[in-house]
Design brief:
Elements (H helix, E strand, L loop, with lengths): L2 E5 L2 E3 L5 E8 L7 E7 L6 E6 L6 E3 L7 E6 L4 E6 L8 E8 L4 E3 L3 E5 L2
């Protein structure tokens, strides 16, 4: 059974930082591209950042470049999203995604709220 379990969400003031983690089980983690998506109320789910399976090539949405960093630890089967200089517009439910092309899995999501 595949499970992606996110953690690290919460409330933070503008300018603050959070670190999200997504622990995977039931998959050969190192073979999967991993990504973080987010969905704000009334908006479509959008890609925040992803990281390839082998080479660790990363990709970021323009809105988070220079503020967010995605990384992975294959030994721990975990992908991280370090979020700095958070803005109110970063408020959303953040979802972890594992993608092997023919198979794709989602976590349950973790809420991130940025407000004063």
């Amino acid at each position: 059974q595949v499970q992606l379990v996110e953690s690290g969400g919460g409330w933070v003031q503008p300018g603050g930082s959070l670190r999200l983690a997504c622990a995977a089980s039931g998959i050969i983690f190192s073979r999967y591209g991993m990504g973080w998506y987010r969905q704000a109320p009334g908006k479509q789910r959008e890609l925040v950042a992803d990281i390839s399976s082998s080479s660790g090539i990363t990709n970021y949405a323009d809105s988070v470049k220079g503020r967010f960093t995605i990384s992975r630890d294959n030994a721990k089967k975990t992908v991280y999203l370090q979020m700095n200089s958070l803005k109110p517009e970063d408020t959303a439910v953040y979802y972890c995604n594992a993608d092997l092309g023919v198979s794709r899995y989602w976590g349950q999501g973790t809420q991130v709220t940025v407000s004063s």
